[in-house]
């Protein structure tokens, strides 16, 4: 049983976290590249926030959005 958990430890520490360790070591030389994953998440979140608000505007312009607070039975 101990070997099973040591195998899980090896998988995460040596294989799956290797890119994160590489970025951690790179931080001292280039902060922007070390935070590349964060920048990707920021860009993706900004895009989907823009897309969501665009879709909300489309529904509002067509009059399909329900603004009544009694739209759900539990709010009555």
TL;DR?
The chain has helices at residues 2-16, 18-26, 31-34, 36-62. With 76 residues, it is an all-alpha fold.
Report on the structure:
The structure is a single chain. The protein is mainly α and 76 residues long. The protein has one domain. The protein contains four helices and no strands. The N and C termini lie far apart (55 Å). The model has no long low-confidence stretch (mean pLDDT 87). GO terms for molecular function: glycosyltransferase activity. It holds the Pfam family DUF6341. This is Uracil phosphoribosyltransferase. InterPro entries: DUF6341.
* Class inferred from helices and paired strands: mainly alpha
Q: Any low-confidence stretches, pLDDT <50, length ≥5? A: none
Integer tally of domains: 1
**Fraction of residues in helix:** over 70%
Morphology call: elongated
| Helix count, DSSP H or I runs of 4 or more residues | 4
Question: In angstroms, what separates the terminal alpha carbons?
Answer: 55 Å
Q: How many extended strands?
A: 0
**Amount of beta strand:** under 5%
Q: N-to-C SSE series?
A: HHHH
Instruction: Please tell me the overall pLDDT.
Output: 87
Largest sheet: none
Keywords: Glycosyltransferase, Membrane, Transferase, Transmembrane, Transmembrane helix
Transmembrane segments: 31-52
Protein name: Uracil phosphoribosyltransferase
GO molecular function: glycosyltransferase activity
